[in-house]
């Protein structure tokens, strides 16, 4: 506590005192370092909040452990180099070979989410995208996107009605992945639609935003005939699904991700500066391309579309598709918006902030 309160820059040896090296959790007083020199290899706790904010700049130092000594990783780190794994379009390919996406999104007052998510699928390389939206939202979506095919569907109370399932069914045969949730709204009938889509479709599905809300509180197994299901909550959405508080999720992000996977049987992408991706029985993937540039309305809808595009393009397993999408999303955010930060060694001003 004394070291954390001083104005002098602190250099942490291996891990800032008070930070759990395996999880990033901080149980009490902990050092906020300007620089952490960590021994032999990177630590999970330095890459995951709240430990990430305590670590400052991280440098891995050699302490003489032979390079041929190997241990099973606690997690994988995915940085911009992961983009080398992006699927490429062949010289003789056509749009269906590049993957096709069906997006179920939008409602009264939330048309932008449908536009952003469906537009992102094409920007991420999908060859064709169909969006099913409410009849009243369809002209708005059509006016913004000339390459996406917007299909009007029955609505009730401003959102998609259960009968909209017939429109969804009519399009599933032409696509290879499905996204559901952005801007769906919270009309009661839409809950039935979301559950029916998940129960019936044998396509990979990414569920976000209002789609997660319709799954309910303290969620159990996500319905489906065995195809991958990817949930992409932020901390608040994860808290509702788990029956935790948001503060508990932010304090125990690795545990929250693992618990969600265990309860739902789905692949989980927990959004944040330290986006964590975890599939059933898999090693977690922690992305390093998070940026404050993405702290803006609609960025989550864009990520939904990018995840759907990766699934549609055949990236597997689902955790790999989700992690690749998160890296691409972060790199795109950094390339569009430049945010200046003080050099981390200048002062001790980088105190922990809420995620």
Question: What is the element layout, followed by pairings?
Answer:
Elements: H1 2-5, E1 11-13, E2 35-39, H2 51-55, E3 57-61, E4 76-78, E5 100-104, H3 111-123, E6 128-134, H4 138-144, E7 149-153, E8 155-156, E9 159-160, H5 165-172, E10 177-180, H6 188-200, E11 205-207, H7 210-215, E12 229-231, H8 235-242, H9 246-251, H10 253-264, E13 267-270, E14 276-278, E15 285-287, H11 299-312, H12 318-336
Parallel strand pairs: 1-2, 2-3, 4-15, 5-6, 5-10, 6-7, 10-11, 11-12, 12-13
Antiparallel strand pairs: 8-9, 13-14, 14-15
Helix pairs in contact: 3-4, 3-11, 8-10, 11-12
Summarize the structure.
32% of the residues lie in helices and 16% in strands.
Distance between the termini: 21 Å
Radius of gyration: 21 Å
Number of strands: 15
The percent range for helix content is 25-40%
Structure description:
The protein is of the alpha/beta class and 355 residues long. It is built from 12 helices and 15 strands. It has helices at 2-5, 51-55, 111-123, 138-144, 165-172, 188-200, 210-215, 235-242, 246-251, 253-264, 299-312, 318-336; strands at residues 11-13, 35-39, 57-61, 76-78, 100-104, 128-134, 149-153, 155-156, 159-160, 177-180, 205-207, 229-231, 267-270, 276-278, 285-287. The chain has a 10-stranded mixed β-sheet, with helices on both faces. Helix 4 links the parallel strand 6 and strand 7 (149-153). The two termini are 21 Å apart. The model is unreliable at 339-355 (pLDDT under 50).
